Amino acid sequence: MLMRIIGFLLISNFLFIFSNAQSVLIEAESFDDPGGWVVDPQFVEQMGSPYLMAHGMGTPVADAHTKFQLGESGEYHVWVRSKNWAPGNWEAPGRFQIAIDGRTLPETLGVTPGWSWEYAGKIKLASGDTELALIDLTGFNGRCDAIFLSTDQNAPPRESPELATWRMKKSDEASSPEEVLDFDLVVVGGGIAGCASAIAAAEQGLSVALIHDRPVLGGNASSEIRVHTLGIYGHFERILRMLDTEHYPNGSPEAYKDEIKRHKNVEKYENIHLYTNWRAYDANTEGNRISSVDARHTSEGKRIRFIAPRFVDSTGDGWIGFWAGADFMYGRESVDTYGEAYEEWGELWSPEESDDFVMGSSVLWRTVKNDAPVEFPEVPWAKEVAQNHEATEGTWKWELSRLDLHQIDDAEEIRDHMLKAIYGSFANAKDKPEGENLAFEWISYLVGKRESRRLEGDYIFTFNDVTDQRKFPDSVVMETREVDVHYQQNLKDESKPDFLSEAIFYKTPKYYIPYRSLYSKNIENLFMAGRNFSCSHIGLGGPRVMRTTGQMGAAVGIAAVICEKYGIDPREVYTDHLEEYMELIESQKHYNTIAPKK
Fold first, then answer.
1. Residue range 179-336+450-590 in CATH 3.50.50.60
2. Is the pTM of this model over 0.85?
3. Other CB atoms closer than 10 Å to residue 114's CB: what's the count?
4. What does the pLDDT look like over 500-518, one tens digit per residue?
5. 82 with 126: CB under 8 angstroms?
6. Would you identify the CATH topology of the domain 24-170?
7. Matching fold, domains 24-170 and 179-336+450-590
8. Helix (H) or strand (E) run with residue 147 in it
């Protein structure tokens, strides 16, 4: 009994001390001035938050700065949530330090493998306005998620569900959306498919919310990733020409011109309400219906709930469907699943047994040749991945997919592996006399994905629909591009590096995709448009390119108009109003745009 009383007193005393400790949590993505650091929100679902990254391509970036209010003077312990993204027998490539009120704390950060709280040191601070700075030491993708200052020396919670709750409480962030907005249609994902969906619906009078987690539209076609658009226009040439790109080399800065065009054409519609830098994080359901989608601003932390009778999942990874409980597929089906038995090089395109292999993700990059030699640091942590491979630019073949890496769950590791491959291959090229004047012009820090989740619809589009030239009563998308399925080169030649891919092709005159592949089988008010549409792994090989997925977006935008007109769900467009819907689809070829109000 005495021990229980003593234990209680000890716990009570600890809680008293903790509750009286002065502390402040600063989310790095909310810095007043990020300097040369960039906000990276790609991996929120995996590691918990957007973060700042020093993407300097080997040159330290300008300091990030912010100010905050400190309630009381005292000696503060400082922790920083960071990670060493390339651990090994070398100095961590992403090292940085923190300075408070002009005084640099002693500890170097970004040195611990895996996301964790690193101790930066302690410092005496006066109450009132306090300035904080992140000092990049390497230019090699150091990352800072959050900074915690406390007069108590106990570290913040480690990686567990407790951490998210603790962070929300410490930052005084609302646990539910502060604002609720109503629309006729909510489109999540501002790639070509999402933009086309928003335009098609808005032109027919619907009020549309377009939610996108980046500052610029276009997805893989944006200036941040720079993949040119491929495919034909089908019924929707007018809409897709507002959004697509010229056929520039992948990675070209020409992407900026098409991005300006894209924004101008989306923003001219008064009834498209554009939410860039907002990342959806949940889909709320009532039975088999989505009632709303919640989104959070990627740097300010504000939250909005978007209510609508219907939703479009153009997230690529199928997040809205996933959160809502939609049936989905991932990986390769066995050859017996759909009978996709086409043989190439003596091998079947589909494996005998299903597995989780999918087409991989790319990170594009470019270099320039200067008039004088350019220094570049030693990168042993990168050469370990690049080995002897040397290169001066990235092409579509720069791609990573492995059975032990999930394209969603392990996306940060995939991106980081590609960065190592880039830095190492570039360093190898610079080691040659002809490479001494080379310098990086641009490296994307965003993952350009080809395949992940595929949401299941009433019809699963397969390779057989291509080879059989099947035309459906609800054919709303058409394509002539060859089926193009990627695999890693080292699967056929072990001497090849693991970050390069190859492709197998099947040429075809034309194939068609039915509307039934563009709405969820079990979530009654969910459309999907993009690489997450209802198809097999091999079925995705042809129509995964952006003009084709843009056709999907326009088709579901028009279907939403029929749904709104009759107060119905997506499936009923096919079962009860197909003739009217197909007439509206056909009319897009001759559509005379009425200038939107402004």
1. yes
2. yes
3. 10
4. 999 999 999 999 999 999 9
5. no
6. Jelly Rolls (2.60.120)
7. no
8. strand 140-150
